[in-house]
Design brief:
The complex is a heterodimer of chains A (about 425) and B (about 250). By secondary structure, chain A is of the alpha/beta class. Chain A has 10 helices and 20 strands. Chain B is of the alpha/beta class and about 250 residues long. The chains are: A alpha/beta (about 425), B alpha/beta (about 250). The structure holds adenosine-5'-triphosphate and magnesium ion.
């Protein structure tokens, strides 16, 4: 069996015998393992790793973790919105708790189940969409590692015409020194459906850990998906989050990456507009404090005419925090009347912090409207004085100004309750990062 | 009664001296108006009192009840009761008026004490009604995209919420249409009283019909060259500043 091929690799040891995965999945896993072995590790001079820190990528110390000690405690700590359409809690690659959708939603055809179960029950859909996009932003090797690893997570299928009002919440916890987790979320929004999915990535402790996560978001004709990932791994963690989005005719995907934790975080977001009228909003809020590095690569791929993509990434940097943004807008031949925007805004709150931005365009069609830009600024002195002149203390004033800066992105979230929850988490992390 | 005293104040920015020996006494319970030509240093005076870091006090003092405040940080001055309604209020992107004022009031509470939300909103709505501001303003970012008049109204809303001991109103009337001028003046007047001293900087005598000052000072070239009652404003309206800017007039300085 597959397990034989990975003996001696602590990251995966013991993992592959668990679970009851179908044959096609086992084959895919073996392919992943072969790819992981032969793909080269990123080199410092690799363009896709410019400004990054490839030597942070030694994976030797990480290992496949045992089950968490106190599952009930983690489930209790998985407080999110309070009310949700479904809620799944995983820790150390294992399902701890699941609240299935209400009977009415199930009857309407909503599917929310573990990927493992879906790989058997909805084999066609899962096989069709699971990691179907090529990983071309630099981390193909780690995507292969994910594929070969003990992926765990949720499969969501929102059937045609169904609107799911409440968000679907998924929690992925990691616990224990050097534990490795492989979260995966696969969402298929069928025609004219509507849903909101929230992934919460959390550490149960302050230990170093490794996360290698992937999501596949498929938004079919006329559907609307809001997807939010709130990353709160420990400040000692190494994490990959590789996101693939496919947006169909007149469909709309709003994806938001919120990075608050992690020592080294590599995010890659690929969004492909595959039909006319598609729209992809790619948003991100990032706080890099202490010695955090948040490295994000994006790709807005316009395959068909008259589609829109709108990227807005905003970073606040404190301490020795670093961010890297590298983004490409690609307009394929024939994708006329494309509207594509890409904007990165950095606010640098310390002399030792560093923000690198590399926006880019590859346009092979006519009659397109594309803009891109990156700005880096400090807190505006006049704005700061205005707040001080109202009696607000300098630390609180800075916090208020940076939250104001982030609100531009958070305001794009259509769900006020979700927005409020995320704002609270961002505020808490920012306050800690400002105190250093 | 409290007392704000400006004592022979000299203030520079870079190499140039902007305030050149300015003295002024403002007790609570009084309203003083300052008029003077463009560039004479009126805003500089207001900003120096508020503690703006760009300006250097080279000599003289600013005292509240006999205690110098020169060493105090701007936020501490504000919490002690000094309020500056800016001539050019800053836009604060993404920070709503409600959050902004909540932070300002929270800063005035003892540590560990939380602002009471219902009381806060009741007070906010009361003051907004007084200034005839629609409730929708609470969720708008401070001054962002506000018209000139809305910005000035927002300054007075802040003053009404923070209830300062000494309010410095720097050209609060500029940019206001006549109806807004009446509303804002009404708002300012409702804060007048024995607990509050006001310094009203303006170019227009008209404002002083609504906010009637106890004293009027004429400022030229970084000094007060003439002080009087509200009739002085009428004289300025009729004659301009020519008489005050002539060299011999400088000798009149207080
Ligand atoms: N930050 C600054 N840098 C350089 N010069 C300054 C600065 N602030 C004020 N000044 C100068 O100081 C002088 C006084 O300016 P101030 O704004 O105090 O005048 P004012 O009396 O308020 O004028 P106005 O009636 O036009 O508002 C002006 O010559 C101005 O150019
Ligand atoms: Mg002025």
């Amino acid at each position: 069996m597959a397990s034989a091929s990975v003996s001696g690799v602590p990251l995966l040891e013991g993992a592959l015998v668990e679970g009851r995965w179908p044959e096609w999945f086992v084959a895919s896993r073996q392919r992943g393992w072969a790819d992981f072995q032969h793909l080269p590790a990123p080199a410092p001079k690799d363009e896709k790793w410019r400004f990054s820190k490839v030597k942070a990528l030694a994976l030797d110390s990480f290992r496949y973790p045992a089950a968490v000690a106190d599952a009930a405690a983690l489930v209790a700590r998985s407080t999110g919105l309070g009310e949700s359409a479904a809620r799944f809690v995983f820790a150390n690659n294992r399902l701890l708790a699941a609240t299935a959708p209400a009977a009415g939603l199930l009857k309407a055809g909503l599917v929310v189940m573990t990927l493992e179960e879906a790989a058997r029950q909805h084999a066609d859909l899962v096989e069709k969409h699971f990691m179907a996009q090529e990983f071309k932003l630099g981390s193909a090797k780690y995507a292969a590692l994910h594929r070969s690893g003990p992926v765990n997570g949720v499969f969501i299928r929102v059937p045609k015409n169904l609107e799911v009002a409440q968000p679907i919440e998924i929690f992925h916890w990691v616990e224990g020194e050097n534990s490795a987790v492989f979260p995966h979320t696969l969402v298929v929004c069928e025609r004219q459906s509507k849903a909101t999915v929230v992934d919460c990535f959390r550490s149960a402790d302050d230990e170093p850990a490794f996360a290698c996560g992937v999501n596949d978001l498929v938004v079919e004709e006329g559907a609307k998906l809001n997807y939010v990932a709130v990353q709160q791994w420990s400040l000692a963690a190494t994490a990959f989050h590789l996101n693939s989005t496919t947006v169909g005719r007149d469909a709309c995907c709003l994806g938001m990456q919120v990075n608050l934790g992690g020592k080294f975080v590599r995010g890659e977001s690929y969004s492909r507009m595959v039909a006319e009228g598609a729209r992809s909003d790619m948003l991100s809020v990032n706080i890099a404090g202490g010695d955090q590095l948040i490295d994000q690569r994006t790709f807005q791929d316009h395959a068909k005419p008259s589609a829109t993509s709108d990227l807005l990434y905003q970073n606040a940097l404190t301490g020795k925090g670093r961010t890297v943004f590298s983004g490409v807008i690609r307009v394929e031949p024939g994708a006329h009347k494309t509207d594509a925007y890409q904007k990165v805004r950095n606010i640098v709150l310390s002399d030792e912090a560093e923000a690198n931005s590399m926006p880019g365009l590859e346009i092979e069609a006519d009659d397109v409207r594309c803009t891109h830009g990156a700005t880096t600024a400090q807190v505006d002195d006049r704005e700061l004085f205005y707040l001080l002149a109202r009696g607000i203390r300098p630390e609180a004033a800075q916090q208020l100004l940076v939250m104001g800066f982030f609100n531009t992105v958070l305001d794009r979230l259509p769900d006020a309750r979700l927005r409020g929850q995320i704002e609270g988490l961002v505020e808490k992390r920012l306050s800690a990062a400002l105190r250093g | 009664m409290k007392h704000l005293k400006i004592d022979n104040l000299h203030v520079s920015i870079g190499q140039s001296e902007i305030l050149r020996g300015l003295s002024l006494d403002l007790p609570t319970g009084q309203v003083h108006a300052i008029m003077g030509p463009n560039g004479s240093g009126k805003s500089t005076l207001a900003k120096v009192i508020a503690g703006h870091p760009d300006y250097t006090v080279t000599s003289g003092d600013i005292l509240v009840d006999g205690e110098s405040i020169l060493e105090m940080e701007p936020d501490a001055r504000a919490r002690q009761g000094i309020f500056l309604a800016f001539q050019y209020p800053s836009e604060i992107p993404g920070v709503t008026i409600a959050n902004f004022l909540r932070a300002a009031l929270q800063a005035r509470l003892p540590e560990g004490k939380e602002l009471e939300a219902t009381e806060y909103y009741a007070k906010l709505y009361e003051k907004m009604d007084l200034l005839e501001m629609p409730r929708t303003f609470t969720s708008r970012a401070v001054n962002e995209g506000f018209s000139g008049g809305e910005k000035k109204r927002c300054e007075i809303l802040q003053m009404a919420m923070l209830q300062p001991t000494f309010a410095l109103l720097d050209e609060t009337d500029s940019g206001l249409d006549i109806d807004a001028l009446k509303i804002v003046s009404h708002g300012v007047n409702s804060l007048r009283g024995p607990e509050t001293g006001m310094l009203v900087i303006t170019h227009y005598q008209r404002l002083l019909n609504y906010i009637v000052p106890d004293f009027v000072h004429v400022m030229v070239n970084g000094r007060i060259v003439e002080s009087g009652t509200k009739e002085l404003a009428l004289k300025l309206e009729a004659e301009g500043y020519d008489w005050a800017t002539e060299p011999e007039a400088e000798a009149v300085a207080v």
